[in-house]
Amino acid sequence: MERNQLSRQVALQRQSLFDQGYLDDQFNQLEELQDDSNPNFVEEVVTLYYQDTSRHVLEIEQALERKPLDFTKLDSYMYNLKGSSSSFGAKKVIAECKLFLEHCKARNGEGCVRTFQQLKTEYATLKRKLEAYFQLARQAGLTGTALRPK
Amino acid sequence: MSQNGIGNSVGSGPSALALDPATTYKITALVVDDDAVTGMIHRRLLDSLGVKNEVVRNGKEAINVHRSGNPFDLILMDMEMPVMNGIEATRELRRMGIRSMIAGVSSCSGDREKQEFMEAGLDDFQEKPLTATKLVSILHKLNKKD
């Protein structure tokens, strides 16, 4: 595919991540930190996020299987996941984290289980979309400041 | 330009708010946060503003770093951490006589927790996520403090 066409596609794909509510302004903030000496900073952050948070997701999954539910532990695990998700602007994941925390506060086990399923869906969907975005950006030869919005 | 090299230029993005290169390395910062992603981002934010920095993963490590004689101009302190949380660490650092600027950076927005954190000895508090604008606001406070 011609380079200009690829660049346009990258820009459109990026914009759709915001328009569809997957990302918030914090992602823009991270892109501002990307430059020629740190050309892949955002992708590195996202990679670290998924590596690091996979254990939080597993902890929550295992904690939800134990009876009775330990809402204090669940709250603590989810607080960590929310914090990491907030740091790079994972908007839909953050929303599910907040809802889960409300269910924890209300000691609503069913709500926690239901919300967690939705959270896992959003978490996986975002990963897929960002991987596709970064791959397309690499194909278009766009890194560093070239990826910042105009 | 102040002695710490913090300019008053107005603009968006870290580059427009960059410190005077001639004085950047006079400011050192310690990031205290157990979250690897947050630590990475805070380090990059500080790097982009020319602030030399290190990261530790909990309050106990922050205490140990200071006990080995390494002072910092600025400490970015998370609240919820394993081993020793930010409130305990801030209290202990002040008890040790550490007069560095300590800015609490936490996603906890409850008034009671924030008040407890401030009372432990913070000079400033910023809600996560930390942005370049929030960090520059902290550095401007540091400038005034000095």
Automatic annotation (TrEMBL), chain A:
The answer to whether UniProt assigns keyword Secreted to this entry is no
Q: Domain HPt: where?
A: 38-133
Compartments (UniProt record): Cytoplasm, Cytosol; Nucleus
Q: What domain of life does the UniProt record list for this protein's source?
A: Eukaryota
A cellular component term, taken from the record's GO annotations: cytosol
Q: Does the keyword Transcription apply?
A: no
According to its UniProt entry, the protein's GO biological process terms are: cytokinin-activated signaling pathway; phosphorelay signal transduction system
Alphabetical keyword list: Cytokinin signaling pathway, Two-component regulatory system
| Molecular-function annotations in GO | histidine phosphotransfer kinase activity; protein histidine kinase binding
This protein's domain notes: Histidine-containing phosphotransfer domain (HPt) contains an active histidine that mediates the phosphotransfer.
Q: What does the UniProt record say this protein does? A: Functions as a two-component phosphorelay mediators between cytokinin sensor histidine kinases and response regulators (B-type ARRs). Plays an important role in propagating cytokinin signal transduction.
State the protein's name: Histidine-containing phosphotransfer protein
Can you name the source organism? Morella rubra
Automatic annotation (TrEMBL), chain B:
Give GO BP annotations, semicolon-separated: phosphorelay signal transduction system
Q: Which residues carry this modification: 4-aspartylphosphate?
A: 78
Domain Response regulatory span(s) in chain numbering: 28-143
Q: Does the keyword Phosphoprotein apply?
A: yes
Isomerase as UniProt keyword: no
Superkingdom of this protein's organism = Eukaryota
- One protein family per Pfam: Response_reg
Q: Where are the transmembrane segments?
A: none
Can you tell me which residues the record assigns to a coiled coil? none
Query: What SUPFAM superfamilies does the record point to?
Result: CheY-like
Q: Which UniProt keywords apply?
A: Phosphoprotein
Query: Could you tell me what this protein is called?
Result: Two-component response regulator ARR22
- Per the UniProt record, the source organism is Morella rubra (Chinese bayberry)
